[in-house]
Amino acid sequence: MFGLTEMMELSASSNTLSEGYQYAIVPTVLLPLAFLGTALSVVATFIAGMFGVKLKAEGPKKLLELLLKPKVLLAAAALNLAIYGGYLGVDYVKNGPVPQAVQKFANSDTTYHQKAKQGDRTLWQQSLENEGVFARGTIVDGELFFGTNEGYLYVADADTGTIKNKLFFGKFLSPSPTLYKGYLYFGEGLHQSHSMGVYKFDPEKKQVVAHFRTNGHTEIFPVFTNADGKDYLLQTAGDDGLYAINPDTMEEIWQFKGGHMDGFALVQGDYVYIGSGIPREGFSINRPFAYKLNLKDGSIVWKKELPLSAWYGPVQVKDDVCFIQGEIHIDTHVGGLSCFTQSGERAHSLVINYPVVGKPIVKNDTIYFNDYYGNLYAWNAINNKLEWEIESDIKKGSYSSLQFYNDKEIIYAKRTGGVLIINMKSGEVRENVDFAQDELIYADPLVKEDAFYLFSMKGSIYKSAKI
Fold first, then answer.
1. pTM of the full predicted structure?
2. pLDDT (tens digit, 9 = 90+) per residue, 342-398?
3. Contacts of 24 (CB under 8 A, 6+ apart)
4. pLDDT, tens digit, 9 for 90 and up, residues 237-256
5. Pick from 16, 231, 319, 410: most CB atoms within 10 A?
6. How far is CA 166 from CA 40, 91, 147, 453, in A?
7. Could you give the C-alpha distances from 146 to 91, 167, 354, 386, in angstroms and in order?
């Protein structure tokens, strides 16, 4: 364990942040015509050679003179601009929103039927072809709702696994649907997406009720709270920062821009805590920060610089607020947690060897969390003591987070398709079960009273009885 200063020094000294890069401008106006001219010259020379004819040297010279004429140069420049503009246009459309009229037409009939199979060690297993599930689903009245990377929202029978409905949205449905007052709310998109938003969805009628448009992507689940009888939906949206939205009308209450924000918010009374991160293109330009905001208007109470990005939301431990730390857009070997008091004073901090990207969970004074490579930790944030650590055998990128399994144990979904059941106090692994060996699981496990569910980026959904 180190202090905050050491964390900043370790981040700054990472050998993956190379210095000394120089930008260069490469003239490309004539490249298409030059390639064409060279190709024609080669073909002409080859054909002439077949008939024993040797071309004169004036040919290439005259071609060069032609290419250097002002009209040709202007035409070449215009052609390059048109090609580049076309590329940007295609890219803009590809990363933009799907019109709601298209969604409505595609979802005129959402009926879909696909039975699940009984697994060797599971109650059932469902498989989607060429689709992956990034975040865990949500169960509402016996139905399991989950989104895919191909932009579909599926509805399955939570008991049997049979899929009943399939709805088209068209963009990566990366967050878990969140239930609030009878409606499901979820965002869409990835880092490069623009003009995304938050959907309000009726799980009974299987239809969108309302939609709030953002500029950035909304790839984390929303957080809900109520103050003085007024409901708030708090949603981060990349470079848009943080939105406060009325979940009833889906209209904006306020917006706070404080950097690139992908993590969920933490609400304590009349205050909101949120952290920012640095995308790849922002390194050496921006810094990450921790914020305390007023819930009612989004004004800043305090702002503190963080040594590393906070890609997921903060957690509360007694009166302190702790932000996870770690970079995911560059390769670093440092991460941890940074804690602050209510007044913004720096409290304890923890430094580990890998970025922390999971959603921490808290019981009493202890934060349970995992890093990007699947190592698991229990840290007493009040006594500043690392209680235990479990080293991963896989050492590959993972976004899944620890979840409570029962009063004494936690569960972790392994990247390859299994789970660990761990005693919270001792760190002892009671169960290490593999349902598959070649899955790619990024989603948190969904734990219910007598069963749990796993969701895979290869399209598999597993339901298992508790073990």
1. 0.85
2. 999 999 999 999 999 889 999 999 999 999 999 999 999 999 999 999 999 888 888
3. none
4. 999 999 999 999 999 999 99
5. 410
6. 53, 27, 10, 19
7. 27, 11, 30, 35
